[in-house]
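Can you give me the bound-state structure? Components:
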Amino acid sequence: MIKKTLLNDMMERLIIKSDSINTWLSKIIETVPRVLAPVKIGSKAEFKEIKDAGSVAYDVITTTSSIKSAAFPNTETLFAYEKQGLETKLYDVAEDNFLDTVIWGARPCDAVGFGPLTKIFNWDYKDKLYNERFSRLVVVSFACDKADECCFCTSVGGGPGNTAGSDIMLTKINDEDTLVEVLTDKGSKLIDLCKDCFTDADDSVDKESVLAKVPVKFTREQIHEKLAKAFESPIWKAQSERCLGCGACAFVCPTCACFDIQEDAHGNHGRRVRCWDSCGFTLFTQHTSGHNPRPTQATRWRQRVMHKFSYMPDRLDIYGCTGCGRCSRACPVDMNIAEHLTNIANNE
Amino acid sequence: MNNNIYIPYVMVVDKITVEAPGVKTLRLRFQNEEEGNNFEFKAGNFAEYSAFGEGECTFCIASAPTRKGYIECTFRKAGRVTSGLDRLEEGMTMGVRAPLGNSFPIEEWKGKNLVFVAGGIALPPMRAVIDNVLDRRDEFGDVTIVYGAKTVNDLVYKDELKEWEERPDVNLFATVDPGGETPDWKGKVGFTPNVLGEVAPSSDNAVAIVCGPPIMIKFTFPVLEKLGFKDENIYTTLENRMKCGIGKCGRCNVGPMFVCKDGPVFSKVQLNALPPEF
Amino acid sequence: MSKLSKDTAALLSEGTVKMIIGYEQGTERPRPAFCHTPEDCERLIFNDQCSNNLAVYLTKKEIIGEDKVGVVGNYYVIKTVIQLNLENQINLQNLVLMTVDGDDIITFGSIDEMQQYVDTHEPVPNEKVLAAIKKIDKMSRSERWEYWKSELSKCVRCYACRAACPLCYCNRCVTEVNCPQWIEPWASPLSNMEWQINRVMHMSGRCVGCGECAAACPLELPIGILTKKMGMDIKNTFGGWKDGSVLSTYNVNDKENFIK
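Here's the bound-state model for the whole set.
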């Protein structure tokens, strides 16, 4: 089980001046093989590999896609094979596929998303590919001073300044000063790259006062309780009528881990790959016989919600939603999950 | 064996048996003896079988764990991967990820009478546990098998059925659907649940194990209930669309239970608690 | 209550239709709405932000069943209904098609009426898309290939484009066929291009130009340019869509100058 070593009870609280941030980032880019950060693309932003500290987009609520691809890429090789006569040789994924990576500019709702992913990929069977990638990540997140209507982190046990899952969290206190909370050994090592950039923060630095206000709409316990009796409820059809059954929500979600396994065959050799899949797709559960246990969009919408708010907490002791709202923003027909969940919480 | 859980064993096709139209059994052996000797599994476990170049497919391990050195799978040619498996010849290699899933709790059945009810292509998972029991015959009470298929030709393990028929310590009732009999068919004629009702095995100190297409199971459970079988003494094995087989790809769950991890073997008590999603 | 809400509520309370599909206000923009009771109709709105192509629901049996439904759609919904009818995918007897024009609610009594409306109310073309097409037209073939490879390598194959398109109603899409595997189902620069090319080619002469494929793409990939360009090419080469369905009509005089 991959654990991030926590420093002793008192995490380090430092201050960095705004004009030193790029200096520090540049040092990181020099040292670390790969740095991923939000970059403006059209009207949106996405995590991309950066080589220049100046290319980071800071003023976005959140990126369109999550950062899960750093540990669980859209497509990855499981192994390669080569048929030689009657023999078949199999080749594991080479170590140089796994890069030390700093994620710069994650949001709290990104960082906390690795929690459910790590649990799924280590549930009894340890997924080496995920673990190799995840163990090489250092997450530097930025607390949120803005939220939009799709955000609901505070309803799922999170918050705009929640440090869970981060190695370092930066909070802009004012134009001059940014608070730097160093939470793990990995984080400490990044600080060491530019020790002079930092001074100690004194106790008066108030992180809470600059954080975004995200009103609580419901609690996870409310949802969990309602879901226990909701399998046959008509609410699933009512909520999912407009759902088109695409995979946008699952793909942008920081915690969705459902995948397909396919063969990339080229005559005598090839590789087995896994790629993202979505429980919203019609064929997701369809048997070869044609029988489909989830034959309607309503049954598939039910699965999405139940999996995240009922099955995962029951089986893995963790919820499958970080309240980032990406699914709602990406959805072509505005399936606003916070709205749906609030409905469920308030429904009889 | 590697710590990459997606990498299968490479196994050699030792023997191919054509069981019925479109249905084959592959006997697979490990490439090296040590691997074979170290391999252990329990009746009820399944595996992900690879036709390299096509993909993976989920079937039970159809042979008993008491028989060492090989495993068997039985499948019907239906799609891309099974077509790939169908094209294999003796001596060729394929992949197996096993053992996966849970198993029949046969240790709990010691001293009990066992009633096996299977239909068509669902005999393979039963055969693993039946042969397991027969290999430890003294430990169990009566063994009754009710097995039916659409037609005589569709019955699988025809040779093994003969063996079971000839054993004095096994009561085999093979049946075909009305209209599926041939002039020289000596077995029963009738749908499997009906034949079970006729045979009417006692539920006293007995466990029933049922496997078959959903429609057969639907009509078999009431017969068992009528015969007095309690839900905690009825077992079945479920199927669902699978890919990873190890509880990660998120596909095979029925409510909170994953057929690949919490199953595929379920008791009727567990089945009753599952939502109608399979 | 608005006229729209009143009129649609009446259709429901009179039992003329079992359901009304229209638009309601969503989180930041309008979204499809499904009204089952007259009270539900109070949510209905209609403005030029209403862009979802509601015709996508008309081929979903689990939504409309065998019931008669009313649809209050925008220009492209009307155009799509004509095309779906041409392809025998809807039962016009089970459809009450409406649109809102200023203060009026128009109910279309026939395909001809729909066609008339479509011919006389064509929306102003999207200047950005036209400019992008001009820019790509000026590129050499290899430049175009690089442009599209670069853009489409970002695609993650969520199929939002396919899901939003009312003309993509195949029960098993070409990417979902594995015997043979026409297109690799995982995201890669080449297979992503194959997917888009296939999608656009399967739209030949059928696409109504609503642009919802591009609007649906969560990554804002410029795929609306492809469908727009394809539509322009089809019109130039094979005439208007009234001249017959391009994919299923053969004329001895069809140009074959692309065969070299």
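A couple of observations. Chain B has two domains: 9-100, 106-237. The helical segments of chain B are 33-38, 80-86, 123-134, 158-166, 192-199, 214-226, 268-273.
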